[in-house]
Write a structure and sequence with these properties.
2 copies of one chain form a homodimer. The first copy, chain A, is about 15% helix and about 35% strand. Chain A is α+β, with helices and mostly antiparallel strands. The first copy, chain A, has a single domain (about 5-185), classed as Pnp Oxidase, Chain A. The first copy, chain A, is globular and about 50 Å long. Chain A starts with 6 loop residues before the first strand and ends in a 12-residue tail after the last strand. Chains A and B meet through helix 1, strand 4, strand 5, helix 3 and strand 11 of A and helix 1, strand 4, strand 5, helix 3 and strand 11 of B.
């Protein structure tokens, strides 16, 4: 599978990729082992520092790895990875090495020990910022400390899970830039 | 503008509409006045009770109304409402009555005092469940206590904000139901 070339991307601008609500892959590492999970429950919480809230079920193998390492990478797959996204959700990192099993390429991150997934369109390196609500809701707040994004395609076709085995995919864009008040366009 | 007929919808299944990440309209009421705001930063947190996390900026007029009333309605607009979604984001409820200004129809809710927006595809009545992180991150956790959804169109064309005045809209669906493990399909 192709590994898109990526460039550094301003972390203050990652809402571009996360706010539309794509299904993402979360990679983690702990004591020499790695894992990948699919995640649909996440949101932007702040531009700068770039904060992202996520629910990671405690039943997931990644939960323990992320809680211990206090790091992860949020990777954005496109529709080219649809089947792998489903297979990653179907399996547990307790039993298999998901990078090897699904032919994905671990790429060294800059600021965290968890690997980037080379085949994804974008990779956001995250450090755990706040675990206040982990016990009650499995809710983690991460700070994105480094972002890598493929400049092409400019508008990636992303997956958006609706439950029941069905993904919506991103469609055409609507530009209403001229209607927005200038102060509403930042950042 | 058309007001779609809606049916009661199981609150345990609202991830169908929220997990794909649409831009939503939040309606609120306090002491006889109403307000509407646009919101892009939200996520599912639990199926049952149906919990939704949201960031509502304290600079928003709705912030105070929702904090005081401890209620709101999350409404899902389709692309038919694109211009109104932008205009709602450009204006403040301090200065105008957004229902009147934008020709939207307030419909009485079942369980909260905030009005539903008739023209939207779906309406989720919410009660504030947890305000632990409101002070620190403007982060509210709501429980959806009643859901209303238009059965048609089955797949609404929703708006997904990417910043910079541009919305992505929902495109075609991909069905991978047969690939999912049965236990991954609930609910």
């Amino acid at each position: 599978m192709a590994i898109p070339k990526k460039k550094d991307f301003l972390v203050e601008k990652i809402r571009r990729y996360l706010e539309p609500g794509p299904t993402v892959l979360v990679s983690s590492s702990w004591r020499g082992r790695t894992d990948i999970m699919t995640m649909g429950w996440h949101m932007m919480m702040e531009f700068s520092p770039a904060l992202v809230g996520c629910v990671i079920s405690e039943s997931n193998h990644s939960f323990r790895m992320i809680r211990r390492s206090r790091e992860c990478v949020i990777n954005i797959p496109t529709t080219a990875l649809t089947d792998i996204v489903v297979k990653i959700g179907n399996t547990s990192g307790d039993e298999i090495d998901k990078f090897a099993e699904f032919g994905l390429t671990p790429v060294e991150a800059s600021k965290v020990s968890a690997p980037l997934i080379g085949e994804c369109h974008a990779n956001f390196e995250c450090r755990l910022k706040d675990d206040t609500l982990v016990r009650k809701y499995n809710f983690f707040i991460f700070e994105v400390v480094k972002a890598h994004v493929a400049p092409r395609p400019k508008i990636p076709r992303t997956l958006h899970y609706t439950g029941d085995g069905i993904f919506m995919t991103s469609g055409r864009s609507i530009n209403r830039r001229k209607m927005f008040l200038p102060e509403m366009l930042k950042p």
